[in-house]
Design goal:
Blueprint (H helix, E strand, L loop, with lengths): L14 H16 L4 E3 L9 E7 L5 E12 L8 E7 L7 E7 L1 E7 L5 E7 H14 L10 H28 L3
Antiparallel strand pairs: 1-2, 2-3, 3-6, 4-5, 6-7
C-alpha cells in the first residue's frame, strides 16, 4: 500500500473519518512521529496528520485531507539536505533533499478548505507525508547506496524501536 497513490476522500464529516483521524494521532504519538499518512496504517485514503515544529520552534498540529503539494518556483526555493526518518522505516535516518518552504492545499475532516504553509522542518514534514499519499517513501529519493544503508540501519535498530513503541503504548493505555 505504501507504493501506490491513495484514493481521494469523498465522504466528509463522518464519524468514521473523525475516528480514523483520532486513531492516527494516537498511533503517531505512540511511535514518536511528527506526521503519519493513512496508508501507513493500512488505509487507502489521501489523509495525513501532523504534530510538528518548524525551525522557529512553533508547533503545528492538524490534519489534511486530499492534500495537494505546491512547491515554490525553482528560482525562489532552497533545497536543504537534512536528516529524515520515517515510521515505516523504523530506526533509519538519512539525509534527504527537500525545499525549505512548502504549501499544501486540501480540506479538513468536514470538507472545509485548508491551506497549510510550512518552513524548515515543518515544510519537510508536509512534503514527506504528501509523498506517502502519492506512493513514495523517503527511500525512493535516495541513491541506491544510501537506500541500502537505510535498510541496514532499519534491520539493526528495528527491534529496539518496536520495544520502545510497545512501552509507550502501554504507558498511554493502548
Amino acid at each position: 500500500m505504501l507504493s501506490r497513490r491513495c484514493r481521494e476522500v469523498t465522504a466528509f464529516g463522518t464519524p468514521e473519518l473523525s475516528a480514523l483521524i483520532d486513531d492516527m494521532f494516537r498511533t503517531m504519538y505512540v511511535a514518536d512521529g511528527a506526521g503519519l499518512a493513512a496508508n501507513q496504517v493500512g488505509v487507502d485514503l489521501r489523509l495525513f496528520v501532523y504534530d510538528c515544529p518548524d525551525d522557529d520552534g512553533i508547533r503545528h498540529v492538524g490534519h489534511l485531507v486530499n492534500p495537494v503539494l505546491e512547491l515554490p518556483d525553482p528560482g525562489s526555493r532552497r533545497l536543504l539536505d537534512d536528516f529524515e526518518g520515517c515510521l515505516s522505516v523504523p530506526g533509519a535516518t538519512m539525509a534527504v533533499p527537500r525545499t525549505d518552504r512548502a504549501v499544501v492545499r486540501g480540506f479538513d475532516e468536514d470538507g472545509s478548505p485548508l491551506v497549510i504553509e510550512g518552513t524548515g522542518y515543518f515544510a519537510r514534514c508536509l512534503q514527506h507525508e504528501t509523498d506517502h499519499l502519492n506512493g513514495q517513501t523517503y527511500l525512493d529519493r535516495l541513491s541506491k547506496r544510501d537506500r541500502k544503508d537505510a535498510l541496514r540501519q532499519m534491520e539493526d535498530r528495528r527491534a529496539d524501536v518496536f520495544a520502545r513503541r510497545a512501552l509507550k503504548a502501554a504507558e498511554l493505555g493502548r
